[in-house]
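Good morning C.,

I know you're traveling, so I'll keep this short. The sequence:
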Amino acid sequence: MTEPLTVDDLTRIRRIPERQRTDRAELYGILDAGLVAHVAFVREGRPVVIPFLYARDGDSLLLHGSTGGGLFLAPEGVEVSVGITHVDGLVFARSVFDSSANYRSVVVHGRAVAVPADEKEAALLVVSEHLMPGRWDEVRASTRKELAATSILRVGLERASVKVRAYGASEAPDDGEDRAVWAGVLPLALVAGAAESSSDVDVPASVRAAAARHVDSGTVRL
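The tokens, ready to paste straight into the viewer:
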């Protein structure tokens, strides 16, 4: 899909609306850069939020979990809100009130439905390639028992909102703030460390590929 994201009463950004983005490619980029989605739903009358590993599959999200989780018990699916956020920096303004963060965030509203059994292995491949590129071909196939214990939920991206802040500290000529106070941005990023081996086997291509997604672009020295 290439059309802009739909903005309606559910997806409209109300606080600082100028930060809302409707470019579907930007939505995909934020999702493809993430690893963890926080999924909110109501269970037995109470709000619940659970983190899931996930992957994007075209115009939907695949959430990886266990068949033992309460979210997966309803055959017709369950209404959810899914949040993914990248914090790209802390913004130090000349007052605490104006200090902020640079971020890229997505909230998806939809129905999470279990992927059918005959499609589960293909969905697992998509999740595996997102998290650990190439690992699928390095290890044995999943057993029937393992597949039965695993559940993948699919959530469509028809109703999603994107909000982004990507600039420095806000200031105005008449804000009365002391210009001798430092202001600026401290960049933040998810960075891969050195692989920790559990045996003497050489680090495989899948681990190197996963690490390459999170390369340190330069350590900050204070």
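Safe travels,
E.
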